[in-house]
Amino acid sequence: MIILTGAAGFIGFHTAKSLLDQGFIVAAIDNLNDYYDVSLKLARLEQLELYDNFTFEKIDIADQDAMRRFTAQHAQATHIVHLAAQAGVRHSFDDPYSYGQSNLVGHLNVLEMARHLPKLAHLVYASSSSVYGANTKQPFSIEDTVNEPVSLYAATKRSCELLTQSYAHLYNIPSTGLRFFTVYGPWGRPDMAYFSFTRNITEGKPITVFNHGDMQRDFTWIDDCVAGIISAMNTPPASGDAYCFGDAPHRVFNLGHNSPEDLMEFISVIENALGTTAEKKKEQMAPGDVEKTYADIDATTQILGYKPLTSIREGIPKFVAWYKDYYKV
Ligand SMILES: NC(=O)c1ccc[n+]([C@@H]2O[C@H](COP(=O)([O-])OP(=O)(O)OC[C@H]3O[C@@H](n4cnc5c(N)ncnc54)[C@H](O)[C@@H]3O)[C@@H](O)[C@H]2O)c1
């Protein structure tokens, strides 16, 4: 049995679906918060509820009592895939405490869950490329020092890694953190640029292009991301394995495409897929943002056999096709 947090979210939904298709029993939780359109979360859940091997409970991971009860009721679980979090860099300026609750208190409760599950073989959790913060060395490598977060979101994600390191060390919990790099695809997140650009263009509204378009992102197609999560799940580290931190059975991997794309090129791929041109409002760099992300995936390929297959030129048209169908554009 696999406990999956954040199942109503974008990556959680796709991961759950893939695990269910492979016949795993998935016990899922999510608090269905309204950070973005709740009906999209409910529509994702509706798809998952078609499976007999899927159960769902609405639980806030920051709720200690609910998490304790859920843990006791799922003592058979062998894996935790922890994807629930307060995501997004910009929202952390408006609602910092939601990041503290979900990403710090919530992550601690997931670690306590891991500590008290007698059959647990592996905890896999979401980190983020944002932990590289102000790092300038490219590509970003898991061996780089990551002490300069430039947003609260990034600081909480780095904290998740450090909290996990202490639990892996103290309680010998095999744990893997995955630093995702701008994951995109159907059923995606409305707060992310590819989604809001598509929405604005179809509604005839201008799009805001930060740093005057002088940005690069390493975009990761959702199916590549899910393949990486499931390979990680099947590859628990033992103390002393390659890339483990100190004596703890804990390591992190980058899950990116290893091929940064220019923002303006990315926009033109969306425009081509929609068959129209966007009105662009160019603005300065937004606080908390970074100019370029670029994933070094050598360790991910070596240990997890991870190979990203889909570029934005294939992925974006598939996203746009889903968007038009879902929103009846
Ligand atoms: N999508 C990306 O590009 C990306 C990049 C880097 C890291 N990540 C990380 O990957 C994970 C999944 O991201 P996503 O893009 O699917 O985001 P998402 O917002 O679509 O999914 C997160 C889910 O977690 C749930 N959630 C939030 N706080 C919760 C709480 N306190 N208790 C229970 N459920 C809670 C939300 O309701 C949501 O359904 C997150 O940890 C995110 O930080 C995502």
> In terms of structural class, how would the helical and strand content be classed?
alpha/beta
Residue windows where pLDDT falls under 50 for at least 5 positions: none
- CA gyration radius, whole angstroms: 19 Å
How many distinct folded domains? 1
Small-molecule binders here are: nicotinamide-adenine-dinucleotide
The CATH topology label is Rossmann fold
Order of helices and strands: EHEHEHEHHEHEEHEEEHEEHEHH
What does the secondary structure layout of this molecule look like, with pairings?
Elements: E1 2-5, H1 10-21, E2 26-30, H2 38-48, E3 54-58, H3 64-73, E4 79-82, H4 91-94, H5 96-116, E5 122-128, H6 152-171, E6 175-180, E7 183-184, H7 193-202, E8 207-209, E9 216-217, E10 220-221, H8 222-233, E11 250-255, E12 261-262, H9 263-274, E13 280-282, H10 298-304, H11 312-326
Parallel strand pairs: 1-2, 1-4, 2-3, 4-5, 5-6, 6-11, 7-10, 8-13
Antiparallel strand pairs: 9-12
This protein binds nicotinamide-adenine-dinucleotide.
Describe the 3D structure.
By secondary structure, the protein is an alpha/beta fold. It has one domain: 3-Layer(aba) Sandwich (Rossmann fold). Helices cover 41% and strands 16% of the residues. It is built from 11 helices and 13 strands. A 7-stranded parallel beta sheet has the order 3-2-1-4-5-6-11, sandwiched between helices. A two-stranded parallel ribbon has the order 7-10. Helix 7 packs across helix 9. The radius of gyration is 19 Å and the shape is globular. The site of nicotinamide-adenine-dinucleotide has 27 residues, from helix 1, helix 5 and strand 5.
